[in-house]
Recover the amino acids of this structure.
């Protein structure tokens, strides 16, 4: 390792306009903080043309580097950790991500952590795990309105790599056009994995498992799909405008695109300090300020929603406790109300200090998949999800984000997320089912959570 090169530069372009310069590059990405620069959404990161690409499906792993691809079998978590170790550098910057692996862990990687049945249909066929290794990224500090080009010199001269990125941005003729709405009368047909009646029956099945003592809560979701002619970049531009979020992302993964407007952090790690922020409890935004106030008050006073969040907080405390120094796991926020374009959420924050003998990947595996999108107890809830949901979740409710070469980590929970493949868009929505859940209300909540994606795809 030859050291770190960071250069601040000036531009009149917005962060998304900067990304448009790289949007046609292989494996381009933006980790896109679209709101809350003072707390959760301070930084965005942009990159393309990774020097290594890691993909896995079931037990088959493909690693591509220097135009050569090798295949092997194994556990993708372990193989990814092995590769990250090869490029490890010291953390020497206040910028949280200076280069590393950017990609996702799909929900279905749970089968590499626990022994679980697998009967749901995989009809989308994207990798279970995808990460590009990037040396040469753009970082945007939204709070300070500063732009940086960063290189570690892992794939070439660090100054040349960083300066070339700046040159492309400075010379770019930015042509970020406003997407044109569909013509009047256009109708987007969404195909759901359940009929309404089937979803209500599935909710009742979860309640029956709760009544019999199997679980306290399970996250039940339905998948929607539709055809679309819109290019992925244009569709994401609409989605981020309609539904800005602190953990949004756009990724080109080769034969598909990931478009995420997630409000939820799965895990953040820096200097062995770990944080997770589960969401439980949702109310729609109102049509006016008065309705907004009523819905906010209702959510804050809802014993059902608060008990639902408490169950997941306990589960996450246990998950973090498995790899944390005893006595360091703390709940630093509880019943925190957060406001988004279409919904209100209740959020909690749990933190801990990872023990020296555990790596960042150990911590990810200890908490994966996030408890907020499985249920409690986690393993039994995941078995019930597989039994009741007809299609595999794939990327949905997995995690998207970065694992830095300096061991920093920030991963979202992949909700409010569209997978676009072969001109078909796939997305899911649902919620946590507890004993006093009303099936009709749960169905409405799933549609409310799908609203932003449906609106973007119908624009």
């Amino acid at each position: 390792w030859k050291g770190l090169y960071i250069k601040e530069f000036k531009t009149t372009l917005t962060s998304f306009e900067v990304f448009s310069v790289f949007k046609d590059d292989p494996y381009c990405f933006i980790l896109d903080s679209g709101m809350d620069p003072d707390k959760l959404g301070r930084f965005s990161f942009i990159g393309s043309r990774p020097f290594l690409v890691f993909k896995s499906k079931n037990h088959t792993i493909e690693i591509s580097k220097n135009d050569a691809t090798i295949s092997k079998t194994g556990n993708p978590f372990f193989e990814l950790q092995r590769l990250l170790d090869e490029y490890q550098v010291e953390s020497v910057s206040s910028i949280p991500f200076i280069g590393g692996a950017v990609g996702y862990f799909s929900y279905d990687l749970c089968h590499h952590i626990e022994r679980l049945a697998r009967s749901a249909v995989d009809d989308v066929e994207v990798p279970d795990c995808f990460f590009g290794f990037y040396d040469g990224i753009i970082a945007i500090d939204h709070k300070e309105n500063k732009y940086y080009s960063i290189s570690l010199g892992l794939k070439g001269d660090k100054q040349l790599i960083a300066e070339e990125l700046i040159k492309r941005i400075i010379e770019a003729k930015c042509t970020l056009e406003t997407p044109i709405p569909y013509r009047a009368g256009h109708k987007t047909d969404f195909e759901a994995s359940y009929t309404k009646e089937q979803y209500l029956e599935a909710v009742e099945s979860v309640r029956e498992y709760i009544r019999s003592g199997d679980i306290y809560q399970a996250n039940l979701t339905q998948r929607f799909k539709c055809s679309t002619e819109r290019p992925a970049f244009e569709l994401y531009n609409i989605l981020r405008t309609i539904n800005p979020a602190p953990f949004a992302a756009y990724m080109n993964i080769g034969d598909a695109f990931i478009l995420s407007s997630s409000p939820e952090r799965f895990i953040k790690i820096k200097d062995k300090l770990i944080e997770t922020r589960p969401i439980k409890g949702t109310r729609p935004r109102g049509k006016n300020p008065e309705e907004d106030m009523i819905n906010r008050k209702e959510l804050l006073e809802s014993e059902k929603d608060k008990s639902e969040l408490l169950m997941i907080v306990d589960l996450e405390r246990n998950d973090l406790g498995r790899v944390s120094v005893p006595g360091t796991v703390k709940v630093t926020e509880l019943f925190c109300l957060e406001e988004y374009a279409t919904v209100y959420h209740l959020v909690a924050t749990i933190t801990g200090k990872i023990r020296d003998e555990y790596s960042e990947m150990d911590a990810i595996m200890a908490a994966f998949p996030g408890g907020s999108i499985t249920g409690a107890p986690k393993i039994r809830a995941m078995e019930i999800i597989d039994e009741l949901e007809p299609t595999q979740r794939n990327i949905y409710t997995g995690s998207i984000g970065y694992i830095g070469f300096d061991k920093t980590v920030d991963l979202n929970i992949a909700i409010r997320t569209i997978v676009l493949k072969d001109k078909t868009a796939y997305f899911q929505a649902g919620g946590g089912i507890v004993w006093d859940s009303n099936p009709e209300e749960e169905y409405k909540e799933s549609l409310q959570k799908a609203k932003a994606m449906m609106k973007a795809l119908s624009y």
DSSP finds ten helices and 24 strands in the chain. The longest helix spans residues 439-458. The longest strand covers residues 217-227.
